[in-house]
Amino acid sequence: MIRKVLLIFAMLMLVVQLFRPGRNISTSASPNAIEANYKVPKEIGVLLRRSCYDCHSNNTIYPWYSNIQPFSWWLQSHVNDGKEELNFDQFNSYNIKKKKHKLDEIVEVIEKDEMPLSSYTLVHRKAVLSAPDKDKIIAWAKGLNNAIN
């Protein structure tokens, strides 16, 4: 009986490998990207790409396990949720009130150590933000918020 259950489970796992979610990969730069419309110092851009862009842009660098179901569904769900909350590649399409709110949220989630997610930094150790990194992003977000009219 156990063999039969394991065989059925293995067959189901093989079948689900055929059903893959779409990938979050854009082939061109977005004209609405934050970097295309606002001053983003090089160092801040590097930090954002390293720690934020996999879930908050139109380009995700996928890890090896993203090719295995059901992990890819879970991962793509996180990416979709992240982009819905904040998409740096669509930032300029937001109205001024929303832009300012998103910048306030960046400050808040970094100050509270809510971002990057611990489930992300567990696997992506380079995405961990040091205290000076956090201070730089916070200062940049506050400065940009003040500059947006």
TrEMBL record:
Residues 6-145 form the Haem-binding domain. This is Haem-binding domain-containing protein. It comes from Pedobacter caeni.
